[in-house]
Amino acid sequence: MTVLGVNVRNFGPLATPENLLGWARFAEDNGFGIAMISDHIAPTPDVNEIYPTPFYDPFATIAWLAGATTTLLLGTSVTVLPYRHPLLTARMAANIDRFSGGRFVLGVGVGWSEPEYAALGVPFAKRGRVTDEYLAAVTAAFTDDVVSHDGEFATYRDVHTGPRPQRLPVWVGGSAPAAIRRAVRFGAAWHPINAAPAWLRDVGVPALRKAADEQGRPVPALAPRLRARLGTRTQPGEGTVAQVAADIRELVDLGCDYVILDPNPDHPRDEKPLADDWKALAEIADHVR
Asked: GO:BP terms for this protein (predicted)?
């Protein structure tokens, strides 16, 4: 059975502790199985134009929300993996997993903002290689009590990692061929963002299966994030309740284990009151169910 989730707005003028808590309570009270939160560390002008400050850190926010919820999975969509040392990412993720009773999902990706990479002193042109190396390091830290790593971007020896996570699936974002291969190699799930259901059916999922066959690995679960906005239909995930629900059903029929509904606008000027977003999400979910 497909689990529906929501993408939480952790940025902009409506991002307050009270509203973030409201998102989590709305999701849990309305039968959503997971709430996911975006990641930026150094919002440069290009980032701030789309994700205006204040911007709440996903790890700190999820750790806080875990204490205010009981059944809701909480995850990152997505952690920009090259922004943090892999040992830091692994420790924060494992700690939150423990505090939440195994309710954390680590969604990861490569990011897109070259100025933000520059602000953090991370090589943008090598972001794919950094991500692959850091994923190997992070997942090793989840399973081994002591880890060593001798890589291009991080080197350390005999580092103790505890606590180990109780249950910590990694979801790998991105739709490029390298991202699909990365999802097969490291991911419990592939987490493409705003990919059209038809593209997933005709291109994405066949590519995922081919990559799994080439690597001799199982096909990861499918956990896409889809726009969910009521109004004029210009792309999948938009339109009437019935149209958005039909898009979601396409994903359900494709065998998706999770579908994350994203009501966030493409530009902050189009942001709606949270009550409107919550009402629309509840209506869409009821129509799908």
From this structure: alkanesulfonate catabolic process
Is 63 in a helix, a strand, or coil? Answer: helix
For helices 274-288 and 241-253, the axis angle rounded to 10 degrees is 50
Tell me the mean pLDDT in the region 39-56: 97
Span 223-252, pLDDT tens digits: 999 999 999 999 999 999 999 999 999 999
Spatial CA neighbour of 69 closest among 132, 10, 25, 7: 25
Mean pLDDT of all residues in 140-166: 97
Cα dist from 255 to 6, 79, 132, 219, whole Å: 19, 25, 27, 12
CA distance 161 to 179: 27
Nearest C-alpha neighbor of 10 from the set 63, 42, 52, 66 = 52
| Whether pLDDT at 267 is above 90 | no
Alpha helices in 216-260 (DSSP H): 241-253
pLDDT reading at 276 higher than 90: yes
For residue 106, count CB atoms less than 10 angstroms from its CB and return exposed for 0-12, middle for 13-18, buried for 19 or more: buried
Distance CA 271, CA 264 (A): 7
Residue 141: other Cβ atoms inside 10 A: 25
Cα 256 from Cα 226, distance rounded (Å):
12
Alpha carbon distance 188, 198 (integer Å): 23
In angstroms, the CA 278 to CA 83 distance is 31
CB 151 within 8 Å of CB 101: no
pLDDT at 268 over 90: no
